[in-house]
Amino acid sequence: MGIGKESIINEVEENRESLIKIAKSIWENPEVGYDEHFASKLQSDYLKEQGFEVNSVEGMETTFIAQYGSGKPVIGILGEYDALPGLSQRVCTHREAVIEDGLGHGCGHNLLGTAGLGAVTALKALMEKENIKGTIRYYGCPAEEGGAGKVNMGKRGVFNDLDCALTWHPFDINTPIRCGMLSNFSVRFRFKGKASHAAQAPYNGRSALDGVELMNTGTNYLREHLIDSIRIHYIITNGGDRPNIVPDFSEVWYYVRGKRAEDVREVFHRVVNVAKGAALMTGTHMEYKILSAIYDFYPNDVLTDVIFENLSLVGAPKHSEEDEKFAKKLGETFTEDERLSVAEGLSENDNIIEEYVHEEVSDLKNGKHHCLSCSSDVGDVSHMIPTAQLSVGAWPIGTAAHTWQSCSASGSNLGFSAMLVASKVLACSAYDLLMNRDIVKKAKEEYKKDMKNFEYVPLMETIEIE
Ligand SMILES: [Zn+2]
Predict the structure, then answer these.
(1) Whether the Cβ atoms of residue 254 and residue 234 lie closer than 8 Å to each other
(2) pLDDT at residue 249, as a whole number
(3) Distance 430 CA to ligand 1 centre (A)
(4) Domain 3-180+296-451 -> CATH class
(5) Cα–Cα distances in angstroms (integers) from residue 242 to residues 54, 234, 245, 369, 385, in the given order
(6) Burial group, residue 338, by CB count within 10 angstroms (0-12, 13-18, 19+)
(7) Where residue 78 falls among pLDDT bands split at 50, 70, 90?
(8) How far is the CA of 107 from the centre of ligand 1 (A)?
(9) Any idea which fold 183-294 has?
(10) Which residues form the Peptidase M20 dimerisation domain (predicted)?
């Protein structure tokens, strides 16, 4: 290991306590997308104190960009800090909410953003010491969970002069993410009918809830005729007020996802047709509103190789015996089948679930034509500029995101150890890019080749609204 990387790793270690404190406070004060006032202030204040130039982004209150250095290349590290509803959970190995039905960090974004803070701080110290040219940026990105924060940031041009973007996600395995992630449309379908007394004069009413139910039934029939990577899920957000009133309003919220944005767009139009059919059958009126549409994630191999090299150098998170016991007990709350089905997403080792914490660094070789069954607005950034990410084992092996178990682990030492590893890997990788312009050039060539003649336009703007 060179002196530069050694000093990055030491610097992250020196900031260990303050980084853990930040990640812990964000975990203890969960906020949903676009409401992350506490987290964004805590992080931007920290970076201001560290001597970064911090800028806000117009019209996006909980977004900020912290920058150090000058000139090319400009390397960005993407951070997130939003939480999820209903996932409030104590750090323990059984289901116990801090606040019943409260918010919780079930996706570990308290760790995600804070690792980026650690990375740019360590890099800045080294850049000052060695007089390294170039610019580093931390992007405080709001609302990853369903809010497409990075799409809205992209519309404001904040990624335009960026050369490469790096990020990570807390999962269960230590590996570069060489595969894609799903494109995702988030859409609310609203049915309007006619209210009536459900016993006295039901024939005078037209049930909006019937519209929703028949739409869902139709969509479930549609599933048989869709390609494998498509995922459709929905919740009924309004099903009426009382059983004795024929509901004149009902709403269902859909996610339609798939490996490629163009496939999802096509399926989305078929789902709209199902909704139209349901409205026709029930004599109701249907309208829909697309809340967000994000691209699939497209990894850059040149950058992912850099990430793998540095992950191998830094090594997997180390755990105390106590942490291992905690991971085993937490992991045992899933069945073996559940654990295997999740662990397979990021590991090609069939015996992976024999352990509860991932103590090695593996290299998921499946490549960019495979896909993880989840989505992220990092996908849009990957369609704008060369982007790469890694996964670090912050949760017991086989733990899915958006569970009480992932929330518990994200507030524990398991999560904090993973965060510090991610910090070091991101900083060392960005350092390689600052020191070796040839890598940046090659990453850009690969991006150009992959994207062919694609010119980034937010996915939402490519959808024909019927
Ligand atoms: Zn996430």
Answers:
(1) yes
(2) 98
(3) 22
(4) alpha beta
(5) 51, 22, 6, 49, 51
(6) middle
(7) very high
(8) 4
(9) Alpha-Beta Plaits (3.30.70)
(10) 186-276
